[in-house]
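Exam prep: given the inputs below (a chain plus adenosine-5'-triphosphate), describe the expected output before reading on.
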Amino acid sequence: MKKAFLIKYGEIALKGKNRFMFENILMDQIRHRIEGLGEFKVQKEQGRFFVEPHSDYDEDEVLAAIQEVFGIAYICPVVVIPRGEFDEIKTSVVDFVQEQYAEKNFTFKVEARRAVKSYPVTSMEICRDIGAHLLDTYPDLKVDVHHPQVRIWIEVRDRTYIYSKAIKGLGGMPVGSNGRAMLLLSGGIDSPVAGYMIAKRGVAIDAVYFHSHPYTSERAKEKVIDLARIISRKTGPIRLHIVPFTEIQLAIYEQCPHEQLTIIMRRVMMTIAEAHAKHLKALALVTGESIGQVASQTIHSLVATNAICTMPVFRPLIGFDKQEIIDISEKIDAYETSILPYEDCCTVFVAKHPVTKPKLEVIEKSEKHLENLDEMVKKAIEDTEVIKIKPGQ
Ligand code: ATP
Ligand code: MG
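Solution:
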C-alpha cells in the first residue's frame, strides 16, 4: 500500500480570498524543510496538502521535519489507494489495521468523508459496513462511538485515503507570510524563545549579536551561532550579524555613570540593530525582554531603551515569567544550549547598582558626553560579520 502524509493546516483556513497565497507559502516551506530527505511531491487538494514520497525515505525523519514547519495543525500518515470499488476499500482498511496495530483489542470508530458525491456508497454506509467488517475480521475489537481509542478515517476523494493518527503540528502561520524582523539574539534563554514566537506568526527572522571580544569569548559566540541554528530549524534561514561591540562598551564604561551603563548600552544596541534591519528590509526589532526581569527591564528602563528606536520593537515575552519562558525554551530544544555558562557582554560590563528608574533626559545627557559615538557606531556596523545559518546544518 502506498504511503503519504496528509497535512491539515490551522489558522490559514480562516483566511478569505487570499488564502491561496498563504497555502503556496506553506507548501514552499514544507518543500524546503524536507529537501534532501528523499524525492517528494507536495500538492494541494481541497484545503489540505499531500506529501507523497517518490523514493525511499525514513518516515520518522520526514515526520519530524514537517512537524517543524509553522502553519500546520496536524500531520496524518496515510495509506493511499485508488478510489476503487467499495470492497477494495474494505480489504485495504483491514490490511491497514493489520499493519498499524500489533494488538487488535482496542475500541474504535470509523469516520468517513465522501468528497466525491458521485461515489455510490454514502459516508454513513462506509462507516457502518467497514465497522462491521473490522469486527468480523478482528473479534477483539470493540466499537465505541463516543470515546474510541482509535479513530479510523476513510476519505474518498480522487483517491481513497486511510489513516488513524493525527500528529499535532506547531500551529501559527508559515514563515514568509508576514514580512521580516531583526532579532536581538544573545546567548541567553529569552531571546531564542522570542525569535521563535515571532517567526510562529509568519515573520522571517534575521539576527544580530553584540560580541565584546575578548571580554566575551569565542565559545560565547559559538553558543549564539548554535542557538541561531537551533531556532532556524523552525524559523528557516537566518543571517546572523556579529557586531564587534568592545570599543563601544569600553567607551560607555569609561565615560558614563556606571549605574546607567546597561541602559545606554541597550540603546546603542537598538540603534545598530535598526541599521542592519533597514539594510535587510526588516520592518521591526524583536527582543527577549520581559517586564521587571532585571533592572534594565523595569517599565521605566524599557521606556528609556525604546525612546531611541524608530522601528516597532516586538517583545513577545513581555508578560511571561521565567518558568513559562523556560518551558518553551525546552520545547524548542534551546534550553540545554542557552544555559551553557559562557559570559555575556551584559554580564561583563555590569554596574553594582544599576538604575531601575532611569530618566530619559539624564541618559541622553550622558550619551552626549560619549566621544565619537556616531563614528564608533558606523564602524561597528561596517565591521559586522554576517554568518548565513541554514536549518539542518
Ligand atoms: P536573554 O536570556 O535573551 O539573554 P536576558 O534575560 O539576559 O535575555 P538582557 O541581557 O537584559 O536579558 O537582554 C534583554 C534582551 O536584549 C535580550 O533578550 C536580547 O534580545 C537583547 N540582548 C541582550 N544582550 C545581547 C547581545 N549581546 N546581543 C544581542 N542581543 C542582546
Ligand atoms: Mg542576556
